[in-house]
Amino acid sequence: MNRKIRIFGLIFLFALTNIAFGQTNKEKALSKGQEAIELMDNGKIKESIKLLKEAEKLDPERFDYPYELAYAHYIDQDYKGAIKILEKNKNHKNVNERLFQLLGNSYDIIGKTEKAFAAYDEGLEKFPNSGMIYLEKGNVYWGKEKYNEALPFYEKGIELDPSFSSNYYRTTLLYCSSTEEVWGLIYGEIFMNLERNSKRTSEISKLLYDTYKSQINFTSDTSFLVSFSQNAQINISDLSDTNNIKLPFGIGVYEPTLMLSMISETSIDINSLYRIRENFINSYYENKRNEDYPNILFDYQKKVRDAGHFEAYNHWILMKGDEDNFEKWHSENEKKWEAFIEWFTNNGLKLDNEHKFYSGQY
Question: Which residues pair with 224 in a beta bridge?
């Protein structure tokens, strides 16, 4: 399992440059803590541990030092040492969700899966909306290749913590390799908007393009097939009102709207996908699909379109799947690209508990 845990570092409350004379114990601890983190980042774990222990003695009330000490043991593969420190600090007055993340991960690595889940669940009691902890619960199953069991945890994390990007990343990978690619396309694009410039962003950009290309098939010059969903399930309670039956989103709304958006196209590349996706948004709102199937991503796409940047935005989203055509487009549209980047910097997709998307909302 990929156990990449971000070192959150010390939150320094005192500016060292403002220290006029002798340091207090807390200030000395901060200085040692800062040096310890730098040593840890450079792979000098033993030296880092020594300084963190000294910092903790100087300022025993602060949570950062025991947490970072446990993390140092963790990356030194001393998982039992990390567990001992973390268990001791579970009830610290300043404890945060990362302690339970690290504690659960430590138990999982040494094969104590039940204790790992107990640690995650204890964390959720204190931090019930922690997308990070739901991610780790899913990752336990991911590591065992039990992907169907992992998925609900990732989606619950998205529902409760919609601005935490990693759950979108995992759900995108799972859905784009399933029969319900429609959710992968939506989650993946949201992910890219949350995490704009990383290796994972490039990976998802290519995956989105490849998914479009593989699931849209031109069978002749005048016909084509699309396959982004196979879910035909209808809620039985909807059948009592035949005038108000809510169709499954994938096959009942997404695919028909997409097919109408493709009528004049004969092939798939980054340029035709821009036209298809723009036609899709136009049709979605003209036919008031947003009233029965509101979607925060589609709302944002409409905002980008209305601002005049939809062409550049689409080329950004799909650029890693069709790099040659992207470079050609970019060389011919540098001003469009620069205008988009300037706008995009200050007009990102906003996600919170009132503005979010998860597949269960339909």
Answer: 218
Residue entry with tokens 């055509």: 325
Q: Are 219 and 225 in contact (CB under 8 A)?
A: yes
Residue 96 neighbours by CB distance under 10 Å: 17
Rounded to whole angstroms, the Cα distance separating 161 from 219 reads 42
Give 17's DSSP letter. G
Global pTM reads 0.90
Fold of 1-161: 1.25.40
In angstroms, the CA 192 to CA 360 distance is 21
Question: Residue 275: is its pLDDT beyond 90?
Answer: yes
Q: Are 37 and 11 in contact (CB under 8 A)?
A: no
Per-domain residue ranges of the chain: 1-161, 180-362
H, E, C per residue of 156-197: HHHHHCCCCCHHHHHHHHHHCCCCCHHHHHHHHHHHHHHCCC
Residues with Cβ within 8 Å of residue 271, at least 6 apart in sequence: 325, 329
Maximum CA extent, the chain: 82
Cα 339 from Cα 315, distance rounded (Å): 14
Instruction: Tell me the pLDDT tens digit for each residue of 122-134.
Output: 999 999 999 999 9
* CA distance linking residue 183 with residue 314, whole number of Å: 18
Tokens for 223?
A: 């016909």
Residue that has been written with the tokens 């994938």 in this structure? 250
